[in-house]
């Protein structure tokens, strides 16, 4: 008897179609989770969602500085991934686009750039932040529900992962750190490799790793570590279960894709000419911005359960860091539920899918916790190195290892969801519902950080700028002039309101030392030097300053015209027009450290084998002299100064404890002159706790130019 088979292309029957149709639609629990996370994100950032262009979630600082850079990139029609110059910042030279840095986070920058084209830079940052919160919560919900089958437990795990204190705080300044969903996707693809160790799933795991590693420079490190844990766990499982080569092949393929991406990124960003995009940090910084175990279990000040009882302890144990980097609280409720999940999983057969998943996420959490530790830790009588110390011997570009809390929370959230689901199932229907209801209340009470909520900044024009809006166009210098790492970037953010170039925005450029040396307007040489740079207006904000920020003071009346005083933020600002005649400006640039002190004792250490002294003058071809004082550290040094052609123009021996006065000739062409300074012996480590290496100090640089 023959059997007639239907062709595979035959239409699906009505019954089969009706059974498959619901799979194309989101489950009700998915819609509920999405609505819950959207509602909470909107509530937490309110009223940003209804004022996208006029408000931002967070205080002025890194956030407003980043918004300003994105705004100028878009308004100047620049490609953020190619070299270019933002001419409105760091005037008159302009601010080079940090395209290498942008390329190292191309998915996030690309999305925000497109959003900014439509709605502006401020709206782009706000939308990206909201998407990060909602995406992280929803991704964790979907993964936990898939592992446990309990939508209620998954809902709690997703909320915790999206809105725990570190994420809540970092959405206010470093919005990349709220996009934990990329790591959830990685872990999910890792589980898919375990279920079906095929080449396809290995490729998908590798591609998910590439996405995570591409999202942010820190995510490059986090993604690499997470991929390594997933690969080692899968390979180890395959080895213990018949040496399954399919698992080895899939895992190695994923790792190869991740390593390949890192190699391509390095070739694109580290190759070519120009300064290295890698930021180097001292071992002291790595220690400061690493995690302490107590920070994972100590509620932050403002916790809804303990209130401010932990405030004094945390403030006295911040080890030089800040709340944004070291508010790492995971929640006692989440940790207890995670512990329950591990204990219950141990009692299951080791071959079960859930046993594998719990083991993987426990390994992820533990490894990330170890990576977040300081470079050296005490274990009994031993002082042992940690992964951050080992990595720093290769590169110290990553400073804040405390940010590994994102990966720790990834593991804890899944384990807590598993523990909650398993425990509620064992308690029966009534007991399980009671437990889930209690967790629904206790977990948010445990994790909500009252002091971090409601930090909203209104982006409005400042009345002080109206004093120059109708003046002829020219370069503006806004005071105080902040060293790199200080200030709230209001000088470049509010530039968009008066739309004139500013000398501000010099942080990290070759002009930084030059501009910071002009911090004191009370110095008679400052305003004429500003005139040489083309500065026409001074906006002097009357805000409190503390060293190393220099109080600007009042410029000499003969050098400026007072235009008025008006409100600026919570204080006022004085506005001047520059009337001084241009005078030469001299500064210690490449190879010299940051400016220390104030005139006439303003000084800079030589911190490289060769340093450069640069002169800017309002002449095409002229000559002059530099006058300054030299001091050496610890031991005598022979100081040699060469001109632009490499010829020695000055050489003297400097003795420790004695300042040597120097007068050095210089030739200026096209308004610029340059000298090179070197010493024998060269730089050495400073005595005491100062981590720097240096040789001689240049004090009170002055220039005199003779125009032929």
TrEMBL record:
* Residue ranges of coiled coil: none
Keywords from the named record: Membrane, Transmembrane, Transmembrane helix
**Source species, domain of life:** Bacteria
**Domain DUF6311: residue ranges:** 123-441
Origin species, per record, is Baekduia soli
Name this polypeptide is given = DUF6311 domain-containing protein
Question: Has keyword Transmembrane?
Answer: yes
UniProt entry tagged with the keyword Transmembrane helix? yes
């Amino acid at each position: 008897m023959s059997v007639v088979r239907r062709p595979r292309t035959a239409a699906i029957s009505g019954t089969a179609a009706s059974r498959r149709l619901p799979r194309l639609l989101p489950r009700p629990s998915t819609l509920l989770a999405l609505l819950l996370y959207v509602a909470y994100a909107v509530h937490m950032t309110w009223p940003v969602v209804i004022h996208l262009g006029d408000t931002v979630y967070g205080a002025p600082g890194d956030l407003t500085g980043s918004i300003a850079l994105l705004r100028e990139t878009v308004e100047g029609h620049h490609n953020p991934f190619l070299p270019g110059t933002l001419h409105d910042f760091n005037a008159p030279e302009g601010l080079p686009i940090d395209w290498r840095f942008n390329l190292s986070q191309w998915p996030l920058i690309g999305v925000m750039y497109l959003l900014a084209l439509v709605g502006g830079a401020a709206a782009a940052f706000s939308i990206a932040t909201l998407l990060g919160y909602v995406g992280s919560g929803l991704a964790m919900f979907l993964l936990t529900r898939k592992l446990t089958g309990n939508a209620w437990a998954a809902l709690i795990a997703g909320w915790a992962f999206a809105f725990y204190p570190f994420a809540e705080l970092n959405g206010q300044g470093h919005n990349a750190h709220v996009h934990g969903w990329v790591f959830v996707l990685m872990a999910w693809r890792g589980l898919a490799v375990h279920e079906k160790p095929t080449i396809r799933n290995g490729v998908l795991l590798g591609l998910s790793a590439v996405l995570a590693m591409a999202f942010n420079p820190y995510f490059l490190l986090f993604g690499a570590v997470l991929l390594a844990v997933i690969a080692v766990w899968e390979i180890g499982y395959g080895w213990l279960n018949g040496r399954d080569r399919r698992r080895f092949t899939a895992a190695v393929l994923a790792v190869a894709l991740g390593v390949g991406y890192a190699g391509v990124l390095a070739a694109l960003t580290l190759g070519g000419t120009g300064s290295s995009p890698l930021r180097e940090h001292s071992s002291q910084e790595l220690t400061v911005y690493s995690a302490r175990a107590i920070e994972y279990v100590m509620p932050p000040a403002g916790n809804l359960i303990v209130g401010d009882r932990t405030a004094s302890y945390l403030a006295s144990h911040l080890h030089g860091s800040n709340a944004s980097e070291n508010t790492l609280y995971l929640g006692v409720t989440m940790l207890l539920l995670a512990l329950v999940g591990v204990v219950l999983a141990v009692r299951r057969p080791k071959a079960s899918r859930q046993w594998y998943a719990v083991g993987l996420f426990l390994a992820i959490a533990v490894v990330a916790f170890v990576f977040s530790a300081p470079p050296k830790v005490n274990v009994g009588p031993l002082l042992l190195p940690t992964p951050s110390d080992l990595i720093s011997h290769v590169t110290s570009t990553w400073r804040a290892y405390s940010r590994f809390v994102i990966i720790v929370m990834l593991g804890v959230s899944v384990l807590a969801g598993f523990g909650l689901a398993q425990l509620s199932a064992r308690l029966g229907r009534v007991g399980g519902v009671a437990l889930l209801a209690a967790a629904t209340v206790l977990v948010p009470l445990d994790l909500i950080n009252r002091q971090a909520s409601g930090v909203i900044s209104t982006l409005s024009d400042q009345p002080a700028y109206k004093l120059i809006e109708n003046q002829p166009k020219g370069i503006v210098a806004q005071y105080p002039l902040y060293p790199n790492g200080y200030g709230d970037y209001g000088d470049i953010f509010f530039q968009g309101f008066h739309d004139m170039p500013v000398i501000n925005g010099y942080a990290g450029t070759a002009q930084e030392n030059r501009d910071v040396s002009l911090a004191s307007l009370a110095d008679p040489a400052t305003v004429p030097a500003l005139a040489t740079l083309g500065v026409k207006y001074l906006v002097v904000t009357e805000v409190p300053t503390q060293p190393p920020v220099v109080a600007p003071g009042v410029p000499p009346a003969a050098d400026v015209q007072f235009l008025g005083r008006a409100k600026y933020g919570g204080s006022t600002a004085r506005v001047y027009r520059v009337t001084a005649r241009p005078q030469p400006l001299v500064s210690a640039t490449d190879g010299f450290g940051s400016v220390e002190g104030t005139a006439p004792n303003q000084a800079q250490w030589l911190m490289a084998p060769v340093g450069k002294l640069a002169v800017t003058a309002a002449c095409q071809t002229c000559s002059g002299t530099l006058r300054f004082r030299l001091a050496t550290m610890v031991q005598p040094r022979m100081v040699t100064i060469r001109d632009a052609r490499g010829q020695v123009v000055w050489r003297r021996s400097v003795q420790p404890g004695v300042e040597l006065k120097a007068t050095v000739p210089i030739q200026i062409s096209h308004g610029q002159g340059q000298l090179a300074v070197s010493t024998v012996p060269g730089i050495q480590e400073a005595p005491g706790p100062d981590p720097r290496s240096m040789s001689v100090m240049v004090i009170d640089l002055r220039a005199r130019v003779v125009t032929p």
